[in-house]
Amino acid sequence: MRKWRERLRSPLLLFFGTMLVGMSIATLLYRCADAGLLTKPGAVARSYTGNATDVQKLYLESRNSTSELLFKIAFTAFGALVAFVLSGARRAASVERGIFSAAGLLLSAMYAAFLYQIGASRCMEASLDDMFGPILNYPILCQFWFLFVAVMVIAVALFRGPRRAAVAAAIIITLVVPRVASAQTSVGCVRDWAKSRSVELPSSAQADAIALVNRMAARQRVEVPKGDRCELAETLLDTVRYSTIHDGQPASGAAGGAALAAVLHTARVSAESPNLSPGALMTDLVSVAEFWKTPSGIIDIDARKPLFITITDRGPRSRGTQWLRYTRCVLRLPPGHYGIRAADGTRIVYSAEIDLARDARIPIDVPKP
Amino acid sequence: MNLLTGTPAFVQYSRGLEHYDYGCFDEAETELKAAAASLAGPALSLREEELLGLTNAALTLVYAAQSSRRGEKTAAIAQFVEVVNTADSLVKLRAITALVPLLDAKSPHWPLVEGEIDVLARRGYWQAENVVLQGRIGTGNAAAAASHLEDRLRQAENVHDAFAAAILLAHAWLAAGRTLEAWLLIRNIERDAGTDLVDIELRVEFLRVAAAVAGARAAMNDADAQQAKSVYDAALREVQR
Hints:
Number of strands of chain A: 7
Shape of chain B: globular
Oligomer: heterodimer
Order of helices and strands of chain B: HHHHHHHHHHHH
Strand content of chain B: under 5%
Number of helices of chain B: 12
Largest sheet of chain B: none
Mean pLDDT of chain B: 88
Shape of chain A: elongated
Largest sheet of chain A: 4 strands, antiparallel
CATH architecture of the largest domain in chain B: Alpha Horseshoe
Low-confidence stretches of chain B: none
Number of domains of chain B: 2
Number of helices of chain A: 11
Strand order of the largest sheet of chain A: 3-2-5-6
Number of strands of chain B: 0
Distance between the termini of chain A: 74 Å
Number of domains of chain A: 3
CATH topology of the largest domain in chain B: Serine Threonine Protein Phosphatase 5, Tetratricopeptide repeat
Structural class of chain B: mainly alpha
Helix content of chain A: 55-70%
Distance between the termini of chain B: 35 Å
Strand content of chain A: 5-15%
Radius of gyration of chain B: 20 Å
Helix content of chain B: over 70%
Low-confidence stretches of chain A: 178-183
Largest interface: A-B, 26 and 28 residues
CATH class of the largest domain in chain B: Mainly Alpha
């Protein structure tokens, strides 16, 4: 029994064990992502011409550079470990086991980079819309976490003592994490947005929504912190939703989702064209995106049923600028004094004056009329 | 494009407002009642609910105008105030402009009306700006009003906006005693108004202000203004017939 336990803890077995487990996890996730593609095989969400749009090129470029960076770090770390093992220095058994386990994880990270490349090819062959889905995200997540855990294992093995290990890990994390953290709007943001507005958004529309938000952010050169990406999506998508309802379309449910999908697709095409179409919706989207470049606050208005919202700038120098939305809605506006009115039909059911400060978030829950 | 545009209810609602603008209140009432009947149904979309709300507000506006015509001032004021208390719309704008001449200086409705007018005027609705201008002239602040409108003219965003600001400025200059400047501005507006001034209501307002300015210049023995005044008066009579 003791002999078996010793064998199980042999460095070489740990190396193969961690590598196999890592590769299995990466493969399993990749297979799941492949099965849950936004565009099912044989079903074309929208006409596929094979020409990548500006936003798709930007997105792929960003994902490629992240995967490449993680691969390079893993490869360099693996080379350093091999050199360390071949150096012939005497090491404690625990250090030996840590190094071999980390090496297995680093190879798994490199394998995940290979899966990413296959995923990218898959998107090129099937539908470019799928690049926004998990097929490219999962391999990169695997790359990152295998590398991260490997680094932690090395830190613990080499720098004995919790304090020294923690310092070493903190230094490595500080160097690696900020470059890896991606600032793209996720499918989760769009799903949460649709759910909170009771809109059943088709999956093809989710891809359009993500592409529209990312394109508007890139076009207007908006640098949004990762934590605020969903708020950027909310402010832009609420603008599209207002335009759809204003056109007489349903506000919620499957019918609302279908109507919204059509407008989102048109808006995405307009946003991706070299010259921005000067329509009212695109003008509104540009002005909403502009507020992300200046110090501003957030107003979040919710109600039991969709109400017509009028927000009027009541600042002393304002020209009475108004923003019109339907609840629920999130707006980012410059600091100032605003009048907020909610109307059911034309009957005003809520009226308030607020002072919005920089970086403030004012939630307003309109009571039942 | 708004998908409600072109629906029978929307057409009837628009016709109702048009009849109201021309003072044909009975016809306006018929059209608006028909619009409300077209919209009666259990499952209205949000926009249809809004159109129904606007139609009902417009009906109240028409009832108020009918009360006013019959000389029932108190009833008319109450009905106009009811419309002023609805969400921002062109119906509300009409209610405010109709309500202001009915209110005496001590009316309790002034705070409500002033708050609403201020927003509408800032947003460039010239009718609301005109109400604010009348108020300033009435309180002896014509010079301040003129100064504000000079800024407004400089910041005009389109042709219609520029025409509206220029016409109101001419009126403010006239009230401030700067008749020559007002007269030169009127002549300047007149050159382009024939082809570029498409808002019927604003054209009527232009004729009204132009006739007043020409009258003031004519009183100062300006021969050109005397001749122009008779033309403006004749044109005004034509459009008001």
